[in-house]
Each structure stands twice: as structure tokens, then as C-alpha cells.
Specification:
Chains A, B: Keywords: DNA-binding, Transcription, Transcription regulation. 2 copies of one chain form a homodimer. Chain A is mostly helical. Helices cover about 75% and strands about 0% of the residues of chain A. Chain A contains 9 helices and no strands. The relative contact order of chain A is 0.11. At the A-B interface, α6, α7, α8 and α9 of A face α6, α7, α8 and α9 of B.
Chain lengths: ~200, ~200
């Protein structure tokens, strides 16, 4: 039976993405090279360049694969305040983690100087995450826990924007107390008057 | 009478910063070089390298000089809602301006890969702007227009974080209607219950 080229390609692709994530964790983004990824994956450098433009594109694909491994939705316990609190605590913890932070920083640098990669990162990595939060807010709105007159895309950015700002510009600590403060302000903005406390 | 070296240095410094901003406007950041700045300012390249580490540091100093030319405070008409609306409309317009946006993008790229420059940009360029907004919010709190129990640094990031997120990650349009939406959400979060509308 002849070897199946599609299966062989898929095996190589998976080996390359796994190698990229391993090396990223071991050496950091700055010291990552296409040569090293190829060597770790047991493929030729030209195999990588046939499918990707450079290490930024490889890492983006690896992160998208990792992000889409789960179902990606935000848990719905029926309490939008509790669910947002858990989500934002986890998000702030990710930005505070030195290794994850270094990866996000590296991708941000690459996307700032590469418009095509920026669109890919937005549409394939960021947008699904933002849309998952939007869906959770929509569910909250259906049960009267979110004001009907707010733009939910703006509410999503009200949650993530301050965290991103603080992380990128290093304007303050990324602690759990900070995460709760972000959620408290957002809830004050979106909770219907009848449900507000204080 | 001998030439005064301090005055000559200050004259050179001003010529270099002015040349850097002129060239930035004419050619954009990517094509800006220390050589070109030196030629435009009529100084030797080594004069620039004596005072700055590279073009990023020169541009940062030029932007700080430009930013501190005015008094930097946020106007206080007595109406915190109106003042925030004017401020955020102007901020969104700046991020939507292709030339200003390109400069901010360039500085952001440089600071992401240069910790020392990142600290300088934060402390000398960003922090004074954020603190000016904080001061306006403090004045609003003194007259009862801002809830006493919110962390004002977090409120400042609630205003700027979403804009920065949307600009950097290109998740949506930067229009006046968007700016007003940011302010409306922030006001809903910070306005004391007794003053809330709707």
C-alpha cells in the first residue's frame, strides 16, 4: 500500500506545531528559529517555509490549534457576575504568568509589524475568544442580568481592554484583587438598575 | 567671549528633536534613521549617539517635549460627563489619525522589545496623561459626580484600555459614536446611584 501524502503532511504539520510550542517554552520567542523548529520536528527547513512565512506564522497556528482544542465557550452557571469573575481572574492570571506573557508579547510585536499576521491573529485567535464572552453576555441579557441597551462588543472590550492596557504598558500590578476590580466596574456599567447593589 | 557649551548643546538637542519629528511626519518611522535625523539637524551622527541609544529614544524625547509644551491638564467645566466625552472623542480621533497612529504603533513596537525604553515611555509620556485624567476624576468625586468607592486608576484604564485594545488589535471602528459608547459605559460604572439616568 503506498504512503498517503495527505496523512504524511498532517503528521509533519502536527510535529512542527508541537516542536514550535515546546521550543517556545524552553527558549523563549527571541531565540526561536525556523531552523530549530525544523530540527526538533525532524523535517527540513524548506518544509516549514512551504507552509508558513516565518516563525510568527508557525506560532500563531500552534496557538490557534491549542486554543481550539477545548470547546472555547465561557461556562454558564446562570450567574453572569460569578462567571465573569472566574473568567477575568483566569485571564489576569494568564497575563501575569511570565511564560504566557512572553509568548503574547512576542505575537503582539510580530503583528504590529505584519498586517497580514495581525488579521490572522485577530480573526483566528482573538475573535473566537471575544465572541465566546459576548455569547455569555447575550445569555445573561436573555435572563435580565445585563442591561438591554449596551453594545455587547464594547462590554467585552470593557473587560479585556483595561487588562491588556495594564499588561502592555505595565501601568500596575496584575493581581486577583485587580481582576475583581475590573469585573466590579464592568458589572456596575451593565447591571440593570433593579439588580444593582449599593 | 567664548561660546557657551551648555547653550550650544541645548541648541543641538532642540534641532535634533525638531528634525526627528519633521522626518517622522515626512517619511514614517520605518524609514527614519539616526543618519537622516543628524543630517536634517546639521549635527554629526555621533552627537546623537552621545545622548541617545537610538531612534526610538530620540522620538520618545521629542514626543515628551511636545506633550509637555501645554499644561497637560484635562479641562474642568464642572461637568465630569461632558469633560470625559470631549477628552475621549479627542483621544479616539488621535488613534484614528493614520499619521499619529503610525507613530504610536512605532513607539509601541520599540517599547515591547526594549524594557528601559518601555519604562521611560510609561513614566514620562503615558503616566502624566493618565494622571491628568485621574485628577479630573478626583475633582468630580469631590463634587459628588463620581462614586467614592471606585479605584480611580482603574477608572482611567476603563476609559483608555478599550480604545487601546480596539486600536492595537483592530477589532472595530474608531468613530465618534464608539468614543461616546466608551464614555457612556464608564459613566454608568462610576456615577453615584442618585445621579444615574435610566
Amino acid at each position: 500500500m503506498p504512503a498517503d501524502p495527505a496523512r504524511r503532511n498532517e503528521r509533519s504539520r502536527r510535529a512542527i506545531l508541537a516542536a514550535a510550542l515546546e521550543l517556545l517554552a524552553e527558549t523563549g520567542y527571541a531565540d526561536l528559529t525556523v531552523e530549530r523548529i525544523a530540527a526538533r520536528a525532524g523535517v527540513g527547513k524548506q518544509t516549514i517555509y512551504r507552509w508558513w512565512r516565518g516563525k510568527g506564522a508557525v506560532i500563531l497556528d500552534a496557538l490557534v490549534d491549542a486554543a481550539t482544542a477545548g470547546d472555547g465557550s465561557v461556562p454558564d452557571t446562570g450567574d453572569v457576575a460569578a462567571d465573569l469573575r472566574a473568567l477575568i481572574r483566569a485571564t489576569v492570571a494568564e497575563f501575569a504568568d511570565p511564560r504566557l506573557s512572553a509568548t503574547t508579547r512576542a505575537i503582539t510585536i510580530e503583528t504590529l509589524s505584519d498586517d497580514a499576521l495581525a488579521e490572522q491573529a485577530r480573526d483566528r485567535l482573538l475573535r473566537p475568544q471575544l465572541d465566546a464572552v459576548r455569547s455569555r453576555l447575550e445569555a445573561g441579557r436573555r435572563v435580565g442580568q445585563v442591561r438591554p441597551d449596551v453594545d455587547l462588543d464594547q462590554v467585552v472590550e470593557l473587560l479585556f481592554g483595561p487588562i491588556y492596557h495594564r499588561w502592555l504598558l505595565r501601568t500596575g500590578p496584575l493581581t486577583e484583587a485587580y481582576a475583581d476590580g475590573v469585573v466590579d466596574l464592568a458589572l456596575a456599567a451593565i447591571t440593570p438598575a433593579g439588580l444593582r447593589q449599593g
